[in-house]
Queue: 3 jobs
Job 1
Amino acid sequence: MDHGAHFFKCDFQVHTPRDQNWRGSNAVTGDERRVYAARLIVAAREKGLSAIAITDHHDMEFVDYVRRAALEETAEDGSPLQLEQRLTVFPGMELTLGVPCQAILLLDADFPENLFPALQTALTINPVPGTEARNGNVIRLDNIVSFSQIHEKLDEHVWLKGRYIILPNVSGEGKVSVLRDGFHGKYAGMPCVGGYVDGSLEKLKPGFRQRLDGKIKEWGFKRIGCFQTSDNRHEDHRQLGVNSTWVKWAIPTAEALRQACLAQESRISQEEPRLPPVVISRVDVSNSTFLGPIALELNAQYTALIGGRGTGKSTILEYLRWALCDQPPGASDEDSPNYQSRRARLIESTLTSLGATVDVTFSLHDVPHVVRRHSKDGSVMIKIGSAELRECTEAEARSLLPIQAYSQKQLSDVSVRIDELTRFLTAPIRTDLTQLKTRAEDTAAKLRQRYGTLQRVRTLQKDLAGRDLAAQSLQEQSASIQASLTGLLPEDRQFLDQEQSYSAASRTITSWSDNVATLRTTFAELLQEAQSSDTAAKAFVPQVQQELIAEISSDYQRVMRNIGSAINQLDGHLQQFLTLQDDPASSVGRWIAALEGFRANYSAAVQRSSAHKEKMAELEGINARLNQHHDETVRTQEQIAALRGTEDEYASERTAWVALRSDHDHLMDAQCQVLTANSEGAIRATIKRFANAADFVQRLKDILAGSGARRERLEAVGTAITAASDPAVMWQEVLRDLELLSMFKPEEEGAGQRPATVALTRAGLSAADLDKIAAKLSSTDWLQLSLVEIGSEPVFEYRSRENEYIPFRNASAGQQATALLKTLLNEAGPPLVIDQPEEDLDNPVITEIVEQIWLAKQKRQIIFASHNANLVVNGDAELVVWCDYRKAGDQSGGKIVGEGAIDVPVVREAIKKIMEGGEAAFKARREKYGF
């Protein structure tokens, strides 16, 4: 775990058998008290608590028993728990003051036991001897009539000052609550920053909640942090943890609780806090010529890297981004820095010579992932969960472990790069867009396959149409020759006339047999599938609901067996038909005999027509060609029949592909609305559909290269699409026209006139242009062209004043960066990594950004490198990592000096020493929050 602040589930009012109102058996001896303390620890764990406070009334006898029990707790395997895993126990007391009201006093978790008696003496409490079962009647501390007085009394002692916090009872109208009517002066004047409620805050009436929220003038507009408590006094711990509060700290001290009250938006939650689901948890660099080895754990919420210029904080972020294959933009113009080249130089100069690797541990919904990148060749390896490291591509790493990252001054540079503005828009929906792209590519692949089949069908249909003409000619020739035959016997002419009919019948009956054989093959495949499914069902062993799933499996197997029986029965019918040819008495057997008899008679008739020998030879040749032609026609018809539905399937795939493109636009449009809302209206983002035909026109130019088609005329086609009143319709019409031209082959015999192309003509293409396109454009080229989208483009505007917008590029750099950063902080998404965001911001907006950070870190992890103390201090960074030079004044090497949270004194001192305006930031925090 990192050294920063984390949330802990707490119950700060837990009583023991020593309390005068205890409901349960006594625990007097040391053994009895140790047994009770051990049971309390177990109960606290069962209730999911991470911290408790022992707050018996004016008594501290049991505190150390419970603390020792917490230290002795072990893991399930008996091993000792890590420090951060142990239950935290705060020493404390419940006090009845002469204010009059009750309050809880809490001390640092490690406050020495030997000072407990001195604390009680400072409060003029006479402790009951430890050998007593209960602490007896509690006497109100009438000498303490205000909260200022109790703070003054305690602060007189150096060993106590800064190590305690007083939390008054604010349970509404109760007689022990300082929130009750008439106590507004006491409440407004108290130096306390927090309070506690017996039970749930939800039980307080709205008026009391307004007092606590600092919304009532009479109550001094004083806002305090509140802790729900269970006030458990039962031996069975029935109330323990029923009412609890999640509190954030790095080290469990009274000062940490005070800081939580002062920054309650960030550090106190009455519900289980929402934490980012995608977190970079660790960065390891095997070695670096500048920073040396690095082993840095990052906080799940807000980590701030600080240090003097050139001490390494930016370098750490660049190592992180490089390892995760995050792609910064390249240089688009001379005025924009080339971030890619900068990073490449950094890796080359600090890692490559050492053969160093950078490991980044990344948690996706609590599943650990590790990416390792090698500086020698840039190769990437990934480990998911407990699996082994394996090679992966940069694209795979980016897709699986995304971040949203910006280098120094990059936010203010975004507006001059359309690709960066678009990346800003698409980053939160990158996964959805990738899925859409994958589906579109799959659909396009199917579309190419379907189109190839469709072209085959069109070729067969064209061939079939040509065959019809040839068949008609051959039939006319056969009829003409037969008519010219004279002097034939009537029965011979009858045989000659019937030859084509017998041939046609023979072809048809043969096709029936072929169809039966095809069906039998299909049935055999279905039978094998049913049998395989039956076998698989028998082999399945359910792990849950075994009896129920076994019953379902039985039903499924029965269905598969019934299907197998039905297939066998149907196959039997088919086989019966095929066996008919072996039975002379069957219909097929009789047909075979009749056909053989006819052919014998036909041959005899041909032999008897010796006077017409030449014509009979011609007739025989024509009939043979006609029979062959009929056979080929039947085969072509069968092929067309086998491909039936191809045109519908192609149209369906084309519709699906266009729909996916529309889905992309809808997704982008929805994200534009989200971006507009997240920027609080500072940015208005919209999608202009079918706005960019550059890729389409370029592909068309490439295809028609060398055809003589004028480039400006082709560019006019793109303009005609984007400028149309309905660009989507115009695009489809242009594609239809181009497809007609791709299928028109003027060099082929009977090609006819070039098809009409209304859309292309309307776009300004001349007849000569159309002829050149038809001569050059193939169907394959057209298909590739048809899959080039007319791109939609996002349009970004900046709100200059209410209801007035200007192009985003026309806003100042500070206005742009502020709007973009606000948007980023309002979005839920992957980790947000920014190097020195303050360099892009105008100073007056820092306070607004700070308040957004409090909410943002619940939705996404934030990692900033910064020189601005306000972003770190008042932004309430959970983890502060500070860097310095390895040697004073030597900027050739840096190092990580320390890390922690701002509730730790050494961290506060580091911030004040290192950061510009550090002292002023703490002063501002003190003036605003009482730090």
Job 2
Amino acid sequence: MPVSMAVHAHADDLPIVAVGASAGGIGALRKLVGSLRGDVPYAMVVLQHLPPNHPSRLADLLRVWTHLPVLEAREGLQPEPGHIYVPSPDSILMLEAGVFCTRPAAGGARRPGIDTIDAFFESVAARHSPRAVAVVLSGTGMDGTAGAVSIRQAGGVVIVQDPLTAQHDSMPTSVIQRGIHDHVLPVSAIGRQLLACFEEGYTRPAASQNWESTVSATLDRILSLIRREAGFDLSGYRPSPLLWRIQQRMDVRRVRSFEDYAWLVEDEPVELESLVRGLPIHVTEFFRDADAWTAFRHEVLEPLIDENNGTPLRFWTPACATGEEAYSLAILLDEIAHESGHDVNYQIFATDAAPEAVVRASRGCYRAETCSTMDPSRLSRYFYTVDGRCRIKRFLRERMVFAVQDVISDPPIAAVDVVTCRNLLIYLEPDTIRKVLRTLNSALRMGGYLFLGASETHAADKLGFAVVSRRWNIHRKVESLGALKQNPAPSRGTVLASLVRTAAERNHVPAVLIDEECNLLRLYGDTAGILHLPAGEPSLNLLRLVDRSWIGQLRAAVSQALGSAQACAFDGGVTRDGNLSHVTVSVTPLEPASDGTLNRALVSFSTRDNGGEHPVPANLGDAGLHEGQRPWTEWEEDLRISREELDASREELQALNEELKAANADLNASNQELNEANVDLKEKIAEIKMQSDVLSSGAVMTVFLDRDQKIRWFTPAISQVIPIQPKDVGRCVSDLAPSFHDPLFASDIHAVLATGAQSDAVVSRSGDRWLLRRIYPHRSSEGVMLGVAITFADVTDRTRAEHGLERSKIWLSAQKEAFQSAMNGDSLETSLGFLLQSLLDQAEDDRRCAFYIAQGKTLHHVVGMPEEYAKCVNGFEISPESIACGLAVATGMPVITPDVLQEPRWQPWTWLALRFNYRGCWSFPVETSAGHLVGSLAMYFERPREPTALDLELATAFTHTAGIIMSQHYRAEPGAS
């Protein structure tokens, strides 16, 4: 059925085209929206990264480039087909229940990988409707990749701008490298493909049919490894933030495919450790959404404290990350107690699935920037400064209980009065969200409160909760849902995998993972005999577990490694079983944390035993030996055998020495030959270097490609036309976007490689420049095709001269034909018609032109526009108060109106422009050789437009000729004036 009939009225069924662009995306957006013709059956949403509080003119620009209505995507607005929507840079836009929803993007609320482009892509995919298309245009980074995965998983289509046409190819290349795309197209072809995607018979390309099984299987493989090795079960998390974190690590390690990265994390435990440090995602801050916390205090905490009247209160913050949310709750409770004068008896349980995060949260030590948004009085009451950081005071930390607990899979904290779980659910799949809400329901006492994040709009009221404040997402438990099912026992395969891992760690090189304060985070291998637990209070600090003689060197090595980002080592000694062993201690820094600081290091211990002989006491026979001590006769026998083996080895060594002397003589002879060849080679190198210097020193633009079209050598000047850098050697030339327009470039290279015939072409370059492009075959001395050499030379002056000469010939021919017509007595309409047709042929665009003749104080149409238009403008007054042609004839000067709808003078006549479909109007006076103004030339354009130098040159030439013909007309018909 036709595309226009495919639109359904229901909002959830409306086709959505989500377009994401970043750096360099303005040009691509202009081409895309400009290519949209007629009624489109979908709503388009254009998303571009801009900093918050930064004014955006994107909507205004889109209105100039397209005829479709362009609107701001406001809260609660329902999208309609045939419209383009643009969100504010101060908001994160999502689509929920068929309408737009927004949330603030300022400050720490903006999270890379799930906000802006990816957030909207995911919300569209959440409709579970195949009627969605994601378009990824020019941009840096990986924005849109994770969201494109969600679109594909929901059955939608992913279209990517061809990276060769993108100003910045990182965003489209990231999607292509992951195999998520359906179509890779230049921007000019995307509009047509969008219509095809919504036709009834559309079928996605066969090459992209099985993408999901590959990506999903590889992601499951990585998550299974994390679950087995680190104990994190991330299967309930949405794939978008997980994929984004994995892609971050892939870019750091320069791995392009998910399959290769899965192999990497299986081979390198340190890489797995670096990945696990970023999973799950920890994004939190003190008093995030301050208004929400104020409402939470007045509507929940203060009434709860008044009602309980000294009864102990229990609070739980699951997924506490680094502790800011839990400490925010503790600060509010202490402030309420201080202001009311009552002693509030409470305890806060803060848990997280990541042991490392729990350790950091329990220390309560934060960077000064993290606390910078807090009120100074609150900061001074609850924090003190140490080592340039802010630390929570002990009296508040003592109210907290930190523990490792996974709210998705572990049993909850029981009988709590309040749960604050803000901004965890946005990372989870819908089924997992329901499971977590049931867990939180079972943890709360009847009447207990649940405080969620502002953007977590989930149906908690259907899972035993009643709404207290929908705006601030506060709920109260009103119904118990019963006991949750216990997690199943681990499978036999999981147990075996755990045993294999334990065995590998016990037999691996002894090593420990530490933080910047030398606290142990993980042990690898068997560290017995190297680390010792001292008497007194147990400690997990490495400096207290190693030999005392190492402490100073170890502290310095850790400081140096974390400060310089380079590994360092030192030698030490340790006594084991009465024997001295030498130990090399190596400190290797891990990858930087998300804030750029180095705070993790791997300390490994390489041990070698003392190689000295064991002392044997004198006058000791076999008697009087201790239990287990060997008799002297056995030592003597071992010594005799060793001497015999030594003699045999000496004979073998002598024979080998003779063979070595003979081989050395042959080597000397070969060395002489090599010296002679080396002299010839140096001469050749000197000759090649001289030739290279000659080519590189001038403005010669040359690049050499091999048979696979990969760059092998180039001159520096070539960067003027192709953005080549030294690191691009070995890269395919088609990966680079040239600054010239040459549609036959790739095909001509293929032709030269195939036929060996030289290929020449004149190609255009930005800035109205022209280049002579030549492709030569490059053969070996035996005639074997090795590749091609491509040279460029600037031929702008010559080309302009040729074009000018060609134009002059055409103009002279047209003028001659018009003059001949006038001399033959043809009508003025016929004679000027020849000029008009030649002008339109020269312009080569969609402009319309017309000649007008002055009759007294008014103008009359001669030729060019339809009869209906002539009736509207005939008799137009020639006056300085007029517009367009009337003003041009009155003043004798051109009147250029780029956009008649923006010109105040045109207000009474905009109906005429709209009726005859033009926006730009240029008027040029026609003057005789005697200086009399006899008429005008007008040019009309469908879109707003400024004239170029060629436009003005055309107008001057043709108005001059028209002036002569009109003058002849006046002389032939005096009454006409």
Job 3
Amino acid sequence: MAVAGARSCRCLPPCGGSMSGPLAGLTVLECPDGVATRYCGRLFTAHGATVLQAGPPDATGVGYGGSASAAYAAWLDHGKRPVARDLRQALGQAVDLVIAGQRPADVAAVDAALGAAGASNPIRLGLTWFAPDGPYAGWGGCDALIQAMSGVAYATGPKDGAPMLPRGHAPQVVGGATAFIVAMAALIGRDAGWRGRRIDVNILDANLCFSESGAAGLALTGDKVVRRGVNRFTPTFPGGIYQASDGWIGVTALTPPQWTALCDMIGHPELARDPASLVTLQRLNAADAFDRVLVPAFKTRPAAYWLIEGQGRRIPLAPVPDLAALPRTPHWQGRGSFAPVPGTASAVGPTQPFRIEPSPAVQSAATEPATAPDLPLRGVRVLDLTMGWAGPLATRHFADLGADIVKVESCTHFDWWRAFDGPMDGDPPPYETRPSFLMVNRNKRGITLDLKTDAGKALVRRLAARADIMIENYAPGTLDKLGIGPKALAGATPGLIGISMGAFGAAGPWSGFRAYGSTVEQASGLPFVNGEPDDPPTMQHVAYGDPIGGLYGAAACLVALYGRRHGRGGAVIDLSQVECLFQLCADAIVAQSTQTDLLARSGSRHPLSLLRAVAGTVAPAAWIAVSVETPAQWTALAALIGCPGLAPLKENEPDMEARLRAWAASREARDAVDRLQGAGVPAGPVYAAQDLLADPQLVAAGFWRRAERRFIGTHITPLAPYRLDGRTPPLVCPSPTLGEHNGPVLMGDLGLSRNEFAALEADGVIGTRAVMGSLQ
């Protein structure tokens, strides 16, 4: 979608895989199996590490078939060096990290080889579908099952039908990116004296980032996730995709000012006159009535008109390009977001979603502490100027891995995830009880500053001078205007790593666009991967882009931090959350680039699966997901459900699907899943977020813990989705109350006297003298 009058884009090239990248000097041995291990290896290669691939990877179930599968495999594996499959021989080379997976037996084989080789130095990263010691340890896994069991599939698809399984390898990419985060932390920690050597990540736990807040929120409030239909998700309305006169436009109006501006923009200001309509959940409950006005209104103008008009009114509207148009979009062309896939005739795939620009260098001589640190990032300091979901999730990974996080909130514009509509006063204060805020801010310290005052900005600069990393995801340009954005702080503090996490990046004609996680998904191309043929472009989540942006924000900072520890100085990082989602649908983007016709959509089915379906069971609203990837699995399923003569052919999928549904209809979900998995057929329950609290695997692993916090008392919180030497990082403290650590940080860390502190408090520079004003 070209935009008239858009300013030119001067972007840095994506961080590439040359030997001069920040990870140059690292050697990684990848034992290729599924997409997750190969994608994790790709992230190392892309930033300069040498990745040795032990034997040829298995191409089963990768991509979209034929030349598209070959092209996606080339995208995953470009730049890696093949070595002998024999692990003992491969381990004869000096390596820093070994990536093993995706079955527990494969990880165990690597552990045995490491022991036999006497290789004590390499860190072993095990990446499996499920935890290797829980009830699901012997289960067969696949992307469809993770979509079902992580709570993502439940709300996707029509309200009155079965849930729809999103397509593609997104769950494995999320698992690979999560594994990369903890592996990078471990490598940094090793240089600082951390002695851990075994990391375990499972793909199911990694994908709980999408639904953990919903699950824990249910335990606190009793609010359950309900299915509302295509492109409708609690609590946001409108928060979907509408047809324009020439295409599609993504629309999100969450706050009262956004809804009022939207109604005025489409020529129906009367919609916002009812005070009840200002609350997003009340609008959602009356969505059919509102859509009778919104749907025809958006059809009257082109998508480009709505995009510019809406963004000009501070409404998060998004372009919704199909997969063919996406790489041709001027904004993404200017940012270098796509590039030819080496080794293919014409395939195009996404580049890395962040750009690292060196800032003034400082050579910091790392000294090994007197005692080994208990967590790999112990001693790292992070200045957290984030709000919402994406930025706080990025800093939560640092907090879980041992870093000291100081979260700074503005006195008058505190983290909007504390409250975005409804009353702001009460007992307890509503902004201290929101489950979403609690989930992503554990293990942090929190302070309040008035960032518009000179004194407040001076304190931010002093905090930055003590920090290793500064992370922000304010509305584009907000902190730059105040003189405390990443570039300004990194320029004033040699060695500081600063990152901005804008939806569309910090450079380019759309860099100033306002966005939520829904906006990010709408703009990413993913909606053209999912849905039935006649559906509108179909979203998967109320804010799919947020947790993904958080993952890559953490990954980008760790890449730069490793580079700084090895003499490369500080950095300024420009991350685009939309580009982060390109990684999740890279298989579809690559496939689209190999053909002329638009990639076909077919609901839960997938071109490479012999069967991929959701079936209802005897329990009310209980579904199971089944995915058959191989003839052997088909044969096992046919024998189990009583049709052994049905040949494993794609054209027999509708018949097998009908027989599966008939078989499942008379069984309880757990019994059906156990029988299928026992026969070697990948199957699992389709969970709503609230179901995750009682999942046997998560309960056995102690994934849900209880924390005590002022205002709400005991509440459930999830743990980190990885283990270090068999142990999950601890829950040290719950999320901070507003300004809870003003004294310890400002007087303890910065050394302010009691009189100085009192004066700042009296002047309103610190404290909570005002409630939330206009939202970012």
